[in-house]
Amino acid sequence: MAQKLQQQLRDVGSKLESPPASKDALVKLLKQAANCLSEIDQSPLPSMLDSMRPCLNAIAKQELLKHQDREVKVLVATCICEITRITAPEAPYSDDVLRDIFHLIVSTFSGLGDINSSSFGRRVVILETLARYRSCVVMLDLECNDLIYEMFSTFFSVVSDDHPQNVFTSMQTIMVLILDESEDIQDNLLSIILSALGRKRNDSSMAARKLAMNVIEHCAGKLEPCIMQFLVSSLSGDNSYLNKSLDHHEVIYDIYQCAPQILTGITPYITGELLTDKLDVRLKAVQLLGDLFALPGVSISECFQPLFSEFLKRLTDRVVEVRISVIEHLKHCLISNPSRPEAPQIIKALSDRLLDYDENVRKQVVSAVYDVACHALKVIPAEIARLVAERLRDKSLSVKRYTMERLADLYKLNCVKSPESLIDIEDFEWIPGKILRCLYDKDFRSETIELILCGSLFPSEFSIKDKVKHWITIFSRFDKVEVKALEQVLLQKHRLQQEMQKYLSLRQAHQEDAPDLQKRISGSFRIMSRLFSDPAKAEESFLTLNQLKDVNIWKILMSLLDPSTSFCQAWSYRDELLKILGERHPLYDFMGMLSIKCSYLLFNKEYVKEILSEAAAQQSVGNTKLMSSCMNLLTVISSFSPLLLAGCEEDLVRLLKEDNEIIKEGISHVLARAGGIIREQLALTSSSVELLLERLCLEGTRKQAKYSVQALAAITKDDGLKSLSVLYKVFMRLVDMLEEKTHLPAILQSLGCIAQTALPVFETREDEIVGFIRSKILESSNKDDGASTQKTECSERSELCLLKIFGIKTLVKSYLPAKDAHLRPGIEKLVEILKNILLFGDISNNIESSAADKVHLKLASAKAVLRLSRHWDHKIPIDVFYMTLRMPQDIHPQSRKLFLNKVHQYIKERLLDAKYACSFLLNINDYHTPEYEECKQNLLEVVQVCQQLKVRQLSMQCEMNMLVAYPEYILAYLVHALAHHPSCPNIEECMDVQAFEPTYWRLHLFLSTLLHGDEGRQSGGVSNWKKESFTAIVSILHSIKSSEDVVDEAKSKTSHAICDLGLTIAKRLVQDQTDISVISAVPLPHTLYKFVEKNKDVISVCSSHSDELSDSELVGSRIKVWWPLDKQFYEGVVQSYDPGKKKHVILYDDGDVEVLHLAKEKWEVISNGCMPKKRPKSKHASPHEELSPEKTGDKSNQADSKQKKNSMKKSSSSKIKRKSTPRKRKVNNRKRVSESNVNADMSDMDSRGDSDLSSVRPPSGSDVDDANSDRLEGKEEHAMLEVGKKTEGSFKEDSEEPVEEDKQDYSGLDGTGDSDDEPLSAWKQGAGKAT
């Protein structure tokens, strides 16, 4: 076999000595030679070497080495590679021949780019042989530098992703061998390698880039000096080294992935680029580092950690574009590797930019955080997600809207990714509550919130059951604010549905030409339009809608308003409606909103049935939290959409029969809300409902008893006497059971609720009930239980104490019936009981009880006074008022906080007069305590409430007394309360200035809150609202100085001294106040102050010359005016005169203000009046007249007169006669505001403040109103700035000639004798002189 091969080699070699002229013959011959050579092993026997010698010599001839045919070249190169393999490691040829051979071999590599060529396999063999046997290293010995450069260039140009791995590996091996064996790296080699790097190069493929990176990785040690020299040169701005077209950032990017250790020395240079003033350079550096740190699977090397820290600092770069770029790259860092060690640091850095001054940056942070959260829910901690969600309160509308959209997307993704754990509290279940809170932001409307809740919150593939499960979990997380927001959305939805039903009914009347019908339709449009963000545009859209003739549109609207329409049907109807209109129709967007608001897409009958089923399911597993959530959600739905419960009567009755307290309480509450709507079907379903509810009234918990009474009233309310008979039957059983003293908490609750619901029933046995509560409960003692009297802990209250509290609540409810509370007699007895409890902690001082019980009873009595004050404020004596204010001083801190929170809640919900805010100030003992800051925050919110009410009245041109709405009017009560406070010493006896310190800082806190709001410091300029507030403060304080204390005349001087102190504080807080030349009199609460008559020495003159006085001279006189309907005179003071209209402004003694044409009235000058003083005419009214009676004209009432009028009518012993009926005049109709109107206006106040004020809370359930219709047009701040202008205009209407008031003492305003270092000392000296 060997001999045959040797012979073949000799034959082929001899033939190649004289190559044939024919290409085909030559190719055939070369193939035979290649095949024979391929069969010979490396290092063969000498005989074999001799036999191949002819072939070896023939192949090396120049004729073959430089043959022009490509196929021949490949075959010759193949033969040479085989010869090189066989003779390795000895070189088979001389150096000159080897140079030609390597030229030939390298030339064949260009054909590697065509993988479909017939010679591709032979070229690969050549490449592999060159790499395997290290033949390429010989090129270095031969100094074939240009040939090596050509080979490298060829490799980078032909390498492809389509090549087999062996081709790529062989190229890499050859290049690494050459670089490793090279003494110095030639610049051209380094340039060709680096030129292959970069992501954006069009002249090299990804395979070439990968090849270059692998070569650098394997030759990092050899290449590092050269690469460092290039990078340092480039980073320093010197581009003379290597190829100028090389992008050094791209080189760094690729080297960082393959050999990051090479880059250790250039980190200072990159840091320099990050810190340079050149924006383009800084941006490129940020781009580079961001890309490096975001590389997937590549951790940040240790040498780059300082650069990473500096990169994070670029989040505070002065250029917005840089900050946004850093945020975007950090997002990609987290997405590429969510579990990277730097993730917490990155998230913290991002969250710190949520308060960036540029809205685009804030928006980018929101995007980054939520994109990462959507990619990996667990990466972003819940607290960071909540922090980002606070951008819902951002000052930028675009940021707020974008945040809401992303929050909804995040929650939807959470629903998709966690379907198995719906009953657990998820990390993102708070999101719907956050979205609902946006309802109190002036930039969001209910339709926006509702659209999110209906269409964007849950995945479209979710079933009703899935959505209900989530809603139950969501609702279990809601706080009071979020529940009220949902109630607000449902309330507005309910109002629109009702009004839309009325409109559609009117439209079907087919009386289009009837003017009355058109008028009613227009009125309906006005009502509905107030429920949209732009009422004017909405009304215009309704008018356009009314012109549409397409019957299908009206059918769809009727179907959407049908409670029986399913969820899928409603969405289908809505889509069909919008399709009919088309996107180009002017009503397209409006109808999209209208179809959401008037449909039952948020909750429908399917939801209700699923909620009831889920409640039963949660009962079976014993999950009380979700069971309560089911009941509470169902209660909210039934309150505003009771029709949705139709058809569920059997389920409700079945659950009511269950032996579960939560279920029974919830169902009774639902029936209390929706019983009136479903009562007929309920009666047909089961006759035992009334018996079940009656049993709960007698034996249930207090809440169950309360709701059961309301439910009984609801399901029988339209049955005439049946309603009273059912309640009467229950009532009689309740009273009969009192003596048994079993289930007393529930029985007392039921009796109180019956008193509120059906007062005539309660009055039939009222004496018996009151007698039992007083003698058997309130007058009971714990003296037989010696241990109980020793209790000191606030939480340790006895059962008897609880019964007493329940008894007090029952008595209080009996004076708070649903209707005509002011007509109920006998309130004085209840007030006396409350007074004794406030004094002694029990109904009398002889009753023994523990200290803890006394504390709880005092707290209950104080709360009772708060509740009664809404309707019975005129019946609450001043001493009871003050005991209520000071009550927290004598109780446990926990109870004190409960009471103050209740005061704060009632004032914010418009259920309590703002004067009770004095309790915040009277119940802090030191201004260095946390209570001080809490008091300050409470006062800020009370001031906001009053200011909103004031702005509301101005915008609506409300006719009620403006002074009542001014937060400054609280000052009249505060001064009196401070003067009567035990901590305030007698001004004439005490000489210790420090004793007045509590009075000083309490007054200072209130005045600084009024004048500076939440600034907490003095400001350079005085804004309009601050000037107005300062004017009001000064007017009130001077009015008090002109009055005497009604309660204790001896305290008058103390009150006057406190006023001087207040004037000094106000002057210091507003240092650049305008000059005040005239202070207008302010009507003060007549229960606290009485006006001091001056110039009594001219009384007789006034009387004798009354007939001689001119109209202008009457100003300042006391007169009495005849009221024909009341058939009596009422006394008052002439405040001003308008010579143009010939009208006088009369301030009556009860606080009413009236503008009269006295020439047409019956009146007389009172003999004890004072001689009027003339005042100089002025073209401009003083800014301090804004609070004067002239300003308010016929709109003003005294602060508390609106609540006291009815009671004063009945009192024959009153010193001041009150008007019981309004007069009717032909020329001048007097304008008055009744108590009910005032309350109604206050209830309708929009409680939604600025989106950045977290302290502004929603209204209570009783005050849940149409926030859309009540919203002011424009920002509240702008409206408040117009207060002075509006009041000045109304003043000029009533009086062109200002009226001179009695001269006031301005010693507190001129600044004389004041010392900034010793304010109390200076005040004490001034107060001594003043008094």
Task: Describe the fold and architecture.
- By secondary structure, the protein is mainly α.
- About 60% of the residues lie in helices and about 5% in strands.
- The protein contains 61 helices and 7 strands.
- The chain has a 5-stranded antiparallel beta sheet.
- Helix 25 (about 465-475) packs across helix 33 and helix 42 (about 800-815) packs parallel to helix 44 (about 850-870).
- The radius of gyration is 46 Å and the shape is elongated.
- It starts with a helix and ends with a helix.
- Residues about 420-425, about 785-790, about 1015-1020, about 1095-1105, about 1170-1320 and about 1325-1330 have low confidence and may be disordered.
Write a concise synopsis of the structure shown.
The chain is mainly alpha-helical and 1331 residues long. Helices cover 59% and strands 3% of the residues.
